[in-house]
Design brief:
There is one protein chain. By secondary structure, the protein is mainly alpha-helical. It folds into three domains: about 45 residues; about 70 residues, no CATH class; about 260 residues, Receptor-associated Protein (Up-down Bundle), CATH 1.20.81.30. Helices cover about 75% and strands about 5% of the residues. It is built from 16 helices and three strands. The chain has a three-stranded antiparallel sheet with strand order 2-1-3, with helices on one face. A hairpin with a 5-residue loop joins β1 and β2. The longest helix is centred in the C-terminal third of the chain and has 59 residues. About 25% of the residues are buried.
């Protein structure tokens, strides 16, 4: 069987070629016998061998993969921390990966680590093995591990990844904690609106219908709204379900996701917090990549995916393209209009002094402090608007229900 390979010679130059061997392990041994260090060994499926036919049970495997629990950020942090400790203690990579595969409780992580272990045995590198499981290991992790392998600083790479992922987890938890209370209040308001219109207001409607009197505008509005809810609630549910599906489909498209992600950043109060949070994520991940030795343009491509926002990803890609055209980082960043003047000044200083990774780390800490302050005051800033919404609802209910009752009581007493 023929295998294609990539290997490095004694001078570190990358060599490519093909070799005949019984299996990938034998191919790796044959490559090493030539004085080369194998980086990647793959079967040459185009060499006349028939590609394996897909079985009729492929959809069962897809369903099984979908039902497997996803790998949470916390599990990635534990993996990076354990790899740092094991590699720093001098434990061989094969033994470390095998031990972590046996100790993890996540099925998807266990399956991925077992496969990485088997690929390491066949002569592939750790980063090449991790890259086969991109649903488990993000591209950022794979790139930094790859740089760590090439520079001989694998344990430092895992330490950097663990610190970065811990900061990311902390930011996510703070955002969730800050938005939990407003979310509960909004859900309670929606539920209360449905209950009032379907169960409470119809009772008053029956009572008012017995009297041939002209009802106030608030009461007529409540009765009309309640009639729509009672008579057309199946259509309303279908419309809501169809709207959710339509919006999800639209957001799944590139143009829809770009519009939605840009819209999120324009939402009053919340938009500025999201923007600062993503800029902190960009600065920290960019700092980690540059500190690990990743080339500038490659680091920008990887960081663009890490921010998880299509609008900001487009801005970062534009920065990368400007640099490829010959601009320096500070000029390209200024043209993007992403950063405040203070941050731009720090980027300029970092570029001039050659310490841009250190200063980007300070930029990340600056944005994280701003985000932390905004999150602490988020509830206090949203509460007045929510109280106003509740007050308007209560006022309409009071005017719509109690005003005609007072009129009827006055007429009864006058009679």
């Amino acid at each position: 069987m023929k295998f294609r390979y990539q290997a490095r010679d004694k001078q570190g130059k990358l060599q490519r070629g093909s070799i005949e061997a019984a299996d990938s392990r034998a191919a790796a041994k044959a490559i090493m016998s030539r004085g080369l260090v194998p980086v990647q060994v793959e079967a040459n499926t185009a060499s006349g061998a028939a590609a394996p036919k897909s079985s009729g049970n492929d959809w069962l495997q897809v369903l099984k993969d979908a039902l497997e629990p996803s790998v949470e950020l916390e599990q990635l942090i534990i993996f990076c921390r354990q790899m740092y400790s094991l590699t720093n203690a001098g434990i061989p990579i094969l033994r470390a990966i095998d031990g972590l595969a046996d100790s993890t409780h996540n099925k998807r992580m266990k399956k991925a680590l077992k496969d990485v272990h088997s690929q390491l045995e066949r002569g592939r590198t750790l980063s090449a093995g991790l890259s086969q499981h991109k649903k488990v290991f993000p591209k950022l992790v794979i790139a930094i591990v790859h740089v760590g392998e090439n520079t001989g600083q694998l344990e430092e790479s895992f330490e950097q990844l663990a610190l970065y992922l811990e900061k990311e987890q902390d930011t996510r938890k703070r955002i969730k904690a800050a938005t939990r209370y407003p979310s509960f209040v909004l859900i309670a308001l929606v539920v209360a609106m449905f209950v009032l219109n379907i169960f409470v207001i119809p009772t008053f409607a029956d009572m008012f219908s017995r009297f041939n009197v002209e009802l106030p505008w608030a009461t007529r509005a409540l009765l009309g709204t309640s009639s729509v809810f009672v008579n057309y609630w199946p259509l309303m549910l279908m419309a809501i379900l169809g709207g959710v599906i339509g919006i999800r489909y639209y957001v799944s498209q590139p143009s829809g996701r770009l519009f939605w992600d840009s819209l999120k950043l324009k939402v009053p109060v919340i938009g500025s917090i999201l923007e600062r949070s993503m800029l902190a994520r960009f600065s920290r991940s960019f700092s980690v990549m540059l500190g690990a030795g990743v080339p500038l343009t490659q680091a920008l491509s990887l960081v663009a995916e890490a921010v998880d926002n299509a609008w900001m990803e487009k801005k970062i890609i534009d920065i990368r393209r400007s640099i490829e055209r010959g601009d320096n980082l500070s000029r390209a960043a200024r043209q993007s209009s992403l950063f405040t003047p203070l941050v731009m000044q720090m980027i300029v200083v970092g570029e001039e002094t050659g310490r841009i990774d250190t200063l980007l780390k300070e930029v990340a800490e600056y944005y994280e402090r701003e985000t932390d302050y905004d999150l602490k005051t988020l509830t206090a800033r949203i509460e007045p608007a929510m109280i106003a919404v509740v007050a308007v609802m209560v006022l309409i209910l009071a005017l719509g229900i109690f005003t005609p009752m007072w009129d009827m009581m006055s007429a009864y007493q006058g009679g």
